[in-house]
Design brief:
Layout lengths: L3 H6 L10 H19 L5 H11 L2 E2 L4 E2 L3 E3 L5 E3 L3 E3 L3 E4 L4 E3 L3 E3 L4 E3 L1 E2 L4 H4 L4 H4 L7 E2 L2 E3 L4 E2 L4 E2 L4 E2 L4 E2 L4 E2 L7 E4 L4 E5 L2 H4 L10
Parallel strand pairs: 1-4, 2-5, 3-6, 4-7, 5-8, 6-9, 7-12, 8-13, 9-14, 12-15, 13-16, 14-17, 16-18
Antiparallel strand pairs: 10-11, 18-19
Helix pairs in contact: 2-3
Length: 210
């Protein structure tokens, strides 16, 4: 019989509060986040130690600003040379994979968890009798490939991939995957233009805000 955590990892509806592995993971991460967000800003060594305890893996040259919030922590995998700016929230019920040389601006939210659209699937009729939450949850992974820039306040929804070198405009809601080497923006997020990184190498680009 599958545990609720196994259901979570396979993308099936799950009940996190009924699985001791999930509740222990959340409790552990909350305690570590409290320490991280309260650590003196200049104490880089301690902050790095805490991040390595929180994340599933973390490369070199990673900076995470405060306040940072996440769910499980161990489902976040970060490459080399990554900036995660202030007030970011990663709901990592399913894996969040971040490549190398990625810029994530302030107030970015990444959600791997969602709920079914149809009310008869989203709402549990027998929740009170079973002592479970009144809703059902599922989770799908989010992937951010190498060289991506996520603009301030953007929201990434469950199951999306942002392709290599692409830029997501500020305030965008990414509800579908974005190809590599593109600029995309809006709600819902749509591709505005694409570029060839080989052709643009050495040329002055438009550095307008995104």
């Amino acid at each position: 019989m599958e545990t609720e955590y196994e259901k979570c990892m396979s993308g099936k509806p799950f009940i996190g509060s009924k699985d001791p592995q999930i509740t222990e993971m959340i409790l552990r991460t909350r305690r570590l986040l409290m320490q991280f967000n309260a650590t003196d800003y200049a104490d880089t060594k301690r902050k790095q130690e805490l991040l390595r305890e929180i994340f599933g893996s973390m490369g070199k040259g990673v900076h995470v600003d405060i306040d940072f919030h996440c769910e499980y922590g161990k489902h976040i995998f970060v490459g080399d040379k990554v900036i995660i700016n202030m007030n970011c929230t990663f709901v990592d019920n399913s894996p969040i994979t971040i490549g190398d040389r990625v810029l994530i601006a302030p107030n970015v939210q990444i959600y791997t968890a969602g709920h079914p659209i149809l009310p008869q699937e989203r709402l549990a009729a027998d929740w009170l009798e079973k002592g479970t939450p009144f809703f059902r949850t599922y989770a799908k992974p989010v992937r951010i490939e190498d060289g991506v820039w996520i603009g301030g306040g953007a929201i990434l929804l469950p199951g999306v991939t942002v392709g290599r070198n692409s830029v997501i405009g500020a305030g965008s809601v990414v509800n579908r995957s974005i190809p590599e080497n593109c600029v995309a923006a809006g709600n819902p997020c749509r591709v505005a233009r694409c570029f060839d990184p080989e052709e643009t190498a050495g040329r002055r680009m438009d550095y307008g805000s995104v």
